Amino acid sequence: MRARIFGMCLLAALVAVPAYADRRSDAKEQVAFGISVAQKGLWKEATFRWEKAVELDPTYSAAWNNLGIAYEQQGKFDDARKAYDKAIKLDPENQMIRQNYDLFREIYDRTQRRRHR
Amino acid sequence: MTARSVAAIASLTMALAASAACVSFYEIGIETPIQAKLDTSPFQRVLVMGFLSGGTQDVDVNSETVRLLRSQLRTKSNLKVIDTDVVSLVDVVDKMKGNVAAPAAADDEPAATAAVKNTKSEIRSEKDLQPYEQIFADVEYWKKLGEEYQNPLIVTGVVYFTDINKSGIVETPREVLDPLGRRQVVSVRQWMDRKGFAIAPKFIFIDGRTGTQLYSDSYREETLYSAAQNTPALSSYFELMDRLIPGFLNTLSSQKIKSTRVLLK
């Protein structure tokens, strides 16, 4: 009985790992394409790509970071904050995400103070 | 060259090549749009007439601020700037007070003149300006002014500009040579006497149709130089105002803040 359960778990793991790897690889493609279009100033297309990337792999911190930047560029501050928060939660040690977030917060806090005045 | 050193160089080169191939971040410039703080659509014209000002006597802070804001608004806003003589609000308040205090004035001197003389010499700190700020709540005064200039948006406020002296530990970059003869920049901490200037403006926006305040925003900036450096007050004034102008303009029109972020792969 125990051997059967172990076998089933092993089978599930073997099926799940390639599926996860596929999703991450697809998400990476979307992120890379998003970067190339963002560098050309096509932020809406970049946003679409990065939204797709986080949909494919919600644990991909780089995609959330880029999405935060894209929202910020379009003045969608609440969405940007949520995206940065997600990126930091997934990769708290990443100094680049932290730096982006700190720079964003400077602007975000200013706009919030204004709203509450 | 020994085989061991050749192997070490080769492995180092490979490691460098590998790390170069794995570049996974890209710096990118962004422009963050910030909405205007104030809806200026009901106004076609803006009146910058004068401020309550005080501090150093080296700069006519009131006139310089009026001139600077008018020129910025002319080029960077859609509002038509009204050209008028610059008015000192300190004098306006003094005259108002002078009229009230007329019976108490000296026999051989008009009451208003005496009041102006007394109060002008007293503005030595920001606190001295506070009693004058009651003018911003004088709805009738601003409404009358608004009627005179066909209901513009009125920009006024308080500007206090003064010289400051500060001493303390300052970190300065210094170039040094490391043991291998390469140049490096290190920061050196040293005690320094410094002097400079500080500015504390409060911009107030008044509806010329009703005389009521629509919005106000306060700022504070300072700049310090080494005690040996002799920087003119006017040059420091413009240096400090340069830092504040984007915030001031953002009250009336949308702005874009340029900065950089790092995209990750």
| Full CATH superfamily name of chain A | Tetratricopeptide repeat domain
Instruction: Using the coordinates shown, work out and report the CATH topology of chain A.
Output: Serine Threonine Protein Phosphatase 5, Tetratricopeptide repeat
Q: Identify the CATH architecture of chain A.
A: Alpha Horseshoe
CATH class of chain A: Mainly Alpha
Number of helices of chain B: 7
Approximate strand percentage of chain B = 25-35%
Q: If helices are DSSP runs of H or I spanning 4 or more residues, what is the number of helices of chain A?
A: 5
| Helix-strand makeup class of chain A | mainly alpha
Measured by residues with Cβ under 8 Å of the partner chain's Cβ, the largest interface is:
A-B, 26 and 18 residues
Tell me the layout of helices and strands.
The complex is a heterodimer of chains A (117) and B (265).
Chain A: H1 2-38, H2 43-56, H3 61-73, H4 77-90, H5 95-116
Helix pairs in contact in A: 1-2, 1-3, 2-3, 3-4, 4-5
Chain B: H1 3-21, E1 25-34, E2 45-48, E3 52-55, H2 61-76, E4 80-81, H3 89-100, H4 111-120, H5 126-129, H6 139-148, E5 153-177, E6 183-207, E7 213-218, E8 221-226, H7 233-252, E9 255-264
Parallel strand pairs in B: 2-4, 2-5, 3-5
Antiparallel strand pairs in B: 1-9, 5-6, 6-7, 6-8
Helix pairs in contact in B: 3-4
Descriptive account of the structure:
The complex is a heterodimer of chains A (117) and B (265). Chain A has 117 residues and is mainly α. Chain A has one domain (2-115): Serine Threonine Protein Phosphatase 5, Tetratricopeptide repeat (Alpha Horseshoe), CATH 1.25.40. The radius of gyration of chain A is 18 Å and the shape is globular. In chain A, α1 packs antiparallel against α2 (43-56) and α3 (61-73) runs antiparallel to α4 (77-90). Chain A has five helices and no strands. Chain B has 265 residues and is α/β, with parallel strands linked by helices. Chain B has one domain. Chain B is built from seven helices and nine strands, in the order αβββαβααααββββαβ. Chain B has helices at residues 3-21, 61-76, 89-100, 111-120, 126-129, 139-148, 233-252; strands at residues 25-34, 45-48, 52-55, 80-81, 153-177, 183-207, 213-218, 221-226, 255-264. In chain B, a hairpin with a 5-residue loop joins β6 and β7. The longest helix of chain B is centred in the C-terminal third of the chain and has 20 residues, at 233-252. Residues 10-21 and 100-119 of chain B have low confidence and may be disordered.
